[in-house]
Structures are given as structure tokens and as C-alpha cells.
Amino acid sequence: MARSGATIDDYFRPDASSRKRKWTDLHDEIRDGFSVDELTAPQGDDSTTWKPRQNYEDVLIGELTPGPRRVTFMARVVNIYDLPVASKSPRAAKGCLKILAKDHTGRILISLWYIDVEYGLGLGSLFTVWTPHVSVSKSNPKSGSTNQGRENAAPLMTSIFPERDGACHVVVHEDTAPSTGRICRVPLGYREGQPHGHGLSSLVESRELARRDASVETKVLVYVKAVGAVTRVTNTKGHSSDKIDIGIGDESGEAILTLYGRMMLSALRWTPFSTILLVSRVNWRLDWRLSVTAQTMIDVDPDIVEAEWLRRVAVGLSRCVNQVYPEGVFDVETLESAPVKLKFTLADIDEFVRARPNEIYMGYMSLLITEVNLTTLYTRRRLFSSECCNMPLFANAVAADCGQCGRNLELRLNPQVIGALTDETGTISCSPPPPSRGASNSWNSPARFYPISRDTRPMTSTPLIWSPQAWRQLLGREPAELLTAAAGDDSAGKAASPSPFLGYIQSRLRFLRITVMFGWSGELGKLAICRVVG
Question: Is a pLDDT exceeding 70 seen at residue 512?
Fold first, then answer.
């Protein structure tokens, strides 16, 4: 029987490559967004690696309105946590980053779904979002907050899935460039010159307000004092997570801020006595701890006048507690061989330095040791000290590990061993401040951040720098020999008892008159004891 008509097979031969393939072969092709290589490729601040197919309106967060609208905005992360999703499907999301972001006009909750891409987002990260839709946030995100009266974390929200949806995208910017370092760092609602400190409270005031009314929202501006070690904890449901304790402080007191997950990873990059945090909507506990919820906002290094003032205060507290004696600054050999010996008093040095502070002065002084803290510092485990990562390090040992970077450091004799030097015109005081009541025995105190010493009182730099030779001439031995001769080793982690040997050395030094060769340098800014000649 003749064929009634031609079919498509008469004109095209079937292609073997068009046969149905396995699901794993089509895995990357089914996605209608971007490939993993495109999303993980290095991206510059101008986001030239992605070109949107449609026009997106560049807006501020405060200008966003609910509904379908292609918009792009830049923001900083003030809260972030990860919600893993258990699914066996290769197309399904493996997790969602809940990001609370803000600029100076408003805040928004972003649900960033992901499969394979690792977004380098953390607290303080600057990023740009392209999204085709913004909706109203109807309910609070998952949170451990017990305050039901608080408003939502943000009035608006958007949900994006860049690996599946080509209409949305995210670019994370580096803050190393000067052009991006100050973008979106102004706190929400901040107005320069606004009275009453923009609703800021001190740590002590915030804690008292929270004790009277847990629903009161307060804002505290603090500096990072210490970054603790990462520890793993297990909750009542059997889920394990990593956490980190951050020591924070202001002019009124100190506290502990506990962070988990993504927020914890951000804190590892913070610099003690330099990083400033503006913490809002935080929960207080009874043991001076601050717990973070999904509604908490943490601005990292906010661009406000109050933050600059607090940073200057923090830098003053972090001055080197035991500065290294500068070699090559003072010509000791020339002064020793000079036929004329210039004798100064403390009043003379003060007068000359005030008149010409940038000059270098050298001479001799006759001083009386009126205070010695040898046994006190040994009992408090501060006989030797150094500094690393902007943090003081104290121990009754010649070496110790830094609690921040883990580097082994060589410690030097604490210059506060000599508490005061006096002549007929004045006194130089180097004594440590008196111990605070119960500071070294409270486990809940932020003192436990210090791996060597639990004393948390601010240790400002002493006005004197002793050379190694000056210490040997004053003590009659190497400073390390004090530890060898002292009894009561501090190996058990408890306060050691001073030996009779240290008490004998201290009694011999007290009210001893010595003649020292000194040096002053404007660049150094301290009085250096170069030699003890008599």
C-alpha cells in the first residue's frame, strides 16, 4: 500500500544524542539560573561578572515597597544564621541563610537559599542584592526570644535563590577598598548632632533596664575586649553547634556576648580594643551575659562620632603594658665616657620635655625607691608580661602562648615591680591599680577570657621602660632567676604564695637610693632607665 504522505522522519534523521539521559546528566542543565562556576567565580566591587537581562531600579531599603518590582540595593549584615534543609533531591536547596540587613534608611529580612555556593557573608559584610519581588514580613523568624511583644525583625522581606532563579543575584563586596569601607555603616535612624546620645545606654544602665522590664529595647555601644576560643555545645534537643564568647566593655563596665554559627565566624576577624559594636535588641542574663536572638542587630564599626570616641578610649586601655627597650636610640657609651656628668631632677625633666617634647635628653638622676610590688605581682601571676594581638599577657613564667593567635611569646619582667621612684622634686608612680573585690574569683566574670591572668582591670602602660642591663644591675641577677628561686609554683592554676626569697628582695629594694642613667625620646614618649650605676 502506498504511503499517503510524507512524514517528518523523511526529512530529519533521529539524533542519538537527543535520547533521554539520566537525571544526573541533566542536573546542571535543568537549573534556569547560573552554574556553580559562575556563582563562585571572583567578583569585583562593580559586579561586572553578572549582567541583568532586565532593568533594575537602584533604591535604598527605606524606599522599598511590597509587591513585584525589580530592584537592587546595597546593605550590611547585622544578623545572620543558617537554617539547613534535609533533602535528597539534587535540585532542592540544602539550606537557607536568614540575613537581617540594613542601611541608614531601613532594614529588611533576606532569605538566601543555596545548594552548592558558599556565600562569604558575616556580621558587617557589605553586599548587593538584585531581586524581583519584596513582600511583607508577617511573622518573626525562628528565634529563641521570649519577648512576644517585640516587633518583627524587619517590616519587609525577600526570598532569593540565585542558583535556580536568573532574576535574582547576590554580590559580596570587599571592605578593603576605601570606596566601600564606609558604605552603609551609619546606624539606622542616626542623625549627627542629635541630642540624648541617639538612645544609647551604657552596659550597666542597659542591664538594669532589662531587669526591670524585659521588653525594653536598648542599644549599647561597646568595644571588643577579648575574643574567646571556639567551643562546641549541645542543646536540650541533642543538636551540637559551635559558639564563641566575646568580651565587650565600655566606660561603665564589662560583659560577655555569646555568638553562634555564622555570627561566630565573623567574630574571629575582630580586633580587640579596636573593633566597635553597636548592639540593639539583645537579651540580658543574670551573669552579665548578652544572648543574641534573630531580632538582634549588631553594627560592626558604625560610622558615628560616639564610636570614634570609644575607640580612642579602648586604644588608651590597650597600650603596651611592657614596651621593649629601644636599642640604638640612646648613645649610652658616649654618655658613660663623657667627662662631665649632667645631673637632673624629675622637675628638670618635666620642664625640658614640656618646652621641647621632640628632643632627646640623657643624663643622671638620684632617686629613692619608695614602693616595690614584687610579691604582689607574683601572687597575682603578673610578674612577667608582654603583649600580642592588642591584648596584654601576664604570667609567672618567661614564656606563654597568646590566647588569640596561639603564638608562643617571650615575656619580660613587669616594670610595675618598681612601684614608685621619688626625688626631692617629684614622684613617678608605676603601681598597678588596687584589685577589684571578687574580680579574680568569679567564674561568670569576663576575667576568664585571659588564659594566663584572670584580672580584668585596665592595665595602662607605665611611664618607665627598663633596659635588660638595668634590671640585672638593680636585682643583682637575671630576672628569670627570680622564678627559679621562688617557691610555690603556679602550675595548678591558683594564685601562688610568695616565697621568703622574694620578700627578702623586696625588703632590700624598698627605700633604696639609686643613681640611674636615663634617656627621653619624644618618639618613645616614656622615660627609659638605661643603666643603674649606683
Answer: yes
User: 445: domain CATH number?
Assistant: 2.40.50.140
322 domain-assigned: no
Q: Are residues 313 and 446 in the same domain?
A: no
Task: In whole angstroms, give the CA distance from residue 316 to residue 206.
Answer: 24
Q: What is the pLDDT of residues 366-408, one digit of tens each?
A: 999 999 999 888 888 889 988 877 677 888 889 988 776 778 8
Residues 431 and 352 in one domain: yes
The three cell numbers of residue 41 are 567565580
Which residues neighbour 37 within 8 Å (Cβ) at sequence distance 6 or greater? none
Helix (H/G/I), strand (E/B), else coil: 511: coil
Within 10 angstroms of residue 511's Cβ, the number of other Cβ atoms is 12
Nearest to 274 by CA among 404, 186, 394: 404
**Are 391 and 501 in a shared domain?**
yes
Work out how many domains the chain is built from and give that number: 3
**Confidence (pLDDT) at 402:** 79
Instruction: Give every CB contact of residue 477 below 8 A, 6+ residues apart in sequence.
Output: none
> Residue 179, exposed/middle/buried by CB under 10 A (0-12, 13-18, 19+)?
exposed
Please, what's the largest Cα pairwise distance for the chain?
A: 133
Listed in order, strand segments (DSSP E) in 85-195 are 95-102, 107-114, 126-136, 156-160, 169-173
CA distance 138 to 155: 8
With bands split at pLDDT 50, 70 and 90, how would you rate the model's confidence at 439?
A: very low
Do residues 202 and 116 both lie within one domain? no
Residue 313 shares a structural domain with residue 337: no
Note the pLDDT of residue 431: 73
For residue 406, the enclosing domain spans 332-532
Same domain? 501 vs 412: yes
Instruction: Collect all residues with Cβ–Cβ distance below 8 Å to 397 and sequence separation of at least 6.
Output: 384, 411, 483
**Which residue, among 110, 115, 135, has the nearest Cα to 125 in the 3D structure?**
110
Read off φ and ψ for residue 239, nearest 5 degrees: -90, 135
Closest by CA position to 276, among listed 307, 316, 231: 307
112 & 213 share domain: no
- Cell numbers that stand for 307 in this block: 564610636
* Alpha-carbon gap, residue 171 to 466, rounded angstroms: 53
